[in-house]
Amino acid sequence: DGDTSAEATEVPSLEASVAISSHVDGDFLPGRAGMQYRDLVPDRQGGFVIASHITIPRGRMNGTSTSTTSFMGEGGPVPDYVHFHKVRFQMIFCFKGWVRVVYEDQGEPFVMHAGDCVLQAPTIRHRVLESSEQLEVVEVSCPSEHETLTDHALALPTGSVQPDRIYGGGQRFARHDAAKAHFEADSLWPGFESSDFGLLAASNGVGSARVVRRTTAAPAVVVDDETRWITSAPPVCAEARGEEEAGSIQGSSCRAIQLAFLLSGSATLQYRQAGQGGSQDMVMKEEELKATASFTLPQGMLYRLVKCSEDFAMLQVTINEG
Q1: pLDDT tens, residue by residue, 229-272
Q2: Rg of the Cα trace of the chain?
Q3: Kind of pairing, strands 136-142 and 89-96?
Q4: φ and ψ at 192, to 5 degrees?
Q5: In this predicted structure, what is the pLDDT of residue 284?
Q6: Among residues 69, 71, 68, 119, which one has the least CA distance to residue 92?
Q7: Residue 28 · residue 55 · CB < 8 Å
Q8: Whole-angstrom distance, CA of residue 62 vs CA of residue 8
Q9: Starting from the edge strand earliest in sequence, which strands make up the sheet with 117-119, in order?
Q10: Exposed e or buried b per residue across 165-181, where buried means at least 16 C-beta atoms within 10 angstroms of its C-beta
Q11: What's the rounded mean pLDDT across residues 190-202?
Q12: In this structure, what DSSP letter does residue 229 have?
C-alpha cells in the first residue's frame, strides 16, 4: 500500500517575507530527468516552501541543441521512474504543453494539458511517462527540502482505482481538469472571476489553489484609488480551522503564505509594508509584473493589483503553516 506515515516530514517554521521573481534569460538550472528549474521563491521562506517553474526545453527528446529546431508538440518519453516524495504539500500545475503521468491506485495513465493541476498527496507513488516538447509546469512543495525516494518494487499502473484512498498526512489524490472548470465572479476582486481547484479538502486543510482572471466586464485600466486593498492568505487558514469568516483570523496565530504566478498578461503589484517606524509607518511598494512573474506574500499583508491587462490571469496558491 506504500508509506502513509505523516510523521516522517519535518517542516521548518515559516519565515514569511515578500518574494518577487521575474523571468530573465539564464535563470533556469538543470534538474531531475532532463528538466530545467527556475526558482520562484529564492529565500524559501525559511525552508517552509519551494516553488519552481519547470520546463523541458526543445531538442531534449533527441539530444539536439536547445537553440536549434523546435519539435514542439511531437512529444517523447521522459527518463523517469516510480518514485515518491516525503512532503507535507505538493501540487503540479501544467502551464504549457502536455504531460502523460500515472499515479498509484488512480487508474490508467492520463494526460495533463495546460491549465490542469494535480495534488500529489504525500508518499503517493507516481511516474512521468512522456511529454510535449517545451512542456512547462509550476510545482509548489512544502517543505523546501524533502526526500524523493525510488520504489523499485511497485509497477504502475497498479490496476486499481481508489479515488478516496488516504495517503500520507491524511490526504487524497486530487485532479483538476481545466476543460471542466467552473468560473464565478470573485468575491474579493470586482471585475474578475475565479475557479478553485478543490485542493483544500483533499490536502486535509493544508493548501489551496485557484486561477483568477479578468472578465470582459472589467475596465481596461483599474484606477488605483478605486481598487480595494486585499489581505493576503487568510482564506485557507479560516477554512482549515472551520471559521465562518476569512477575515476573522486576522491577528490570530494562524499563519500562511500566498504565492501567485502570472499565467498571462501584465499588472502592477502594490503592497504595504511596515517602514522604519514599525506598523504605524506603512510604506507602499510597487512592482511591474508580466507573464511568468511570481510574487509571494506573508499572511495578512495588504496588497492589490492595478493596471491589469485584458488578458490577465494568475495561478494563486495558499499554504497554511499548521
Answers
A1: 787 755 444 444 344 333 333 334 468 889 999 999 999 999 98
A2: 20
A3: antiparallel
A4: -130, 160
A5: 85
A6: 119
A7: yes
A8: 39
A9: 29-30, 36-39, 50-55, 136-142, 89-96, 117-119, 174-176
A10: bebbbebbbbbbebeeb
A11: 93
A12: P
* Grid cell at residue 15: 519565515
**Measured between alpha carbons, how far is 91 from 257 in angstroms, rounded to an integer?**
15
**Which three cell numbers mark 106?**
488512480
* DSSP code at position 106: B
Q: Beginning with the edge strand found earlier in the chain, give each strand of the sheet holding 184-185 in spatial order.
A: 19-21, 294-298, 256-264, 313-320, 207-214, 192-196, 184-185
- What number of other Cβ atoms are within 10 A of residue 151's Cβ? 18
Give me 219's grid cell. 475596465
| Residues forming a β-bridge with 292 | none
Query: Can you say how many angstroms the Cα of residue 44 is from the centroid of all Cα atoms in its chain?
Result: 14
Strand partners, 302: 231
Query: pLDDT tens for residues 24-42?
Result: 755 888 777 667 889 999 8
Single-letter residue type at 53 = H
142 forms beta bridges with 89
Burial class (CB in 10 A: 0-12, 13-18, 19+), 62: exposed
Q: Which helix (H) or strand (E) holds 237?
A: helix 234-240
Residue type (1 letter), 103 = Y
**Cα 158 from Cα 127, distance rounded (Å):** 12
